[in-house]
Amino acid sequence: NAGVTQTPKFRVLKTGQSMTLLCAQDMNHEYMYWYRQDPGMGLRLIHYSVGEGTTAKGEVPDGYNVSRLKKQNFLLGLESAAPSQTSVYFCASVLGGGREAFFGQGTRLTVV
Amino acid sequence: QQQVKQSPQSLIVQKGGISIINCAYENTAFDYFPWYQQFPGKGPALLIAIRPDVSEKKEGRFTISFNKSAKQFSLHIMDSQPGDSATYFCAARQAGTALIFGKGTTLSVSS
Q: Which of A18, A44, B43, B93 has the fewest CB atoms within 10 Å, i.e. the most exposed one?
């Protein structure tokens, strides 16, 4: 039972490049979230999903897109990376009707 | 507009002392208030949580105090230990949506 797995763990991008971050959970959870963590800013919600095929915007969605085609996967895309998107990205999942959010280990992204 | 306000930003406590972290919220539709603990290089992990129909919840050395009328809740860590040194986040969630986090408190427990 791996829990929540994020791929990749580290990445360096050049400005303007695109990439996709993958979050996979094996707990059959309904809800999945993407957050970014920056020093002094806490965890800020980018997008979230309350079920397969659904997505919603969070606090800081600009510059990001998401997809939830399969229940176990939640993808975060950066179409044209900017230095302001340098951050640590965390994915989390929650069992529908449950409470505890389980987090992945994070993806450290640097945009140069 | 910050939905969950957390203070202090950093805290230094001596071993054996009490650590207190406070949070305040505005949205009365929030129905779940957890605290998460994060160690460097790791993802946050649930520490303790409370629902608004309860005024206090205790798990070991960790206690949440909840004041619904004041829209405030706090984390108390009794007998703080060096191993408690971490970043602590309060959070809140409205049913059917996502967790909203405070900005975090970095706790250092000196031995």
A: A18
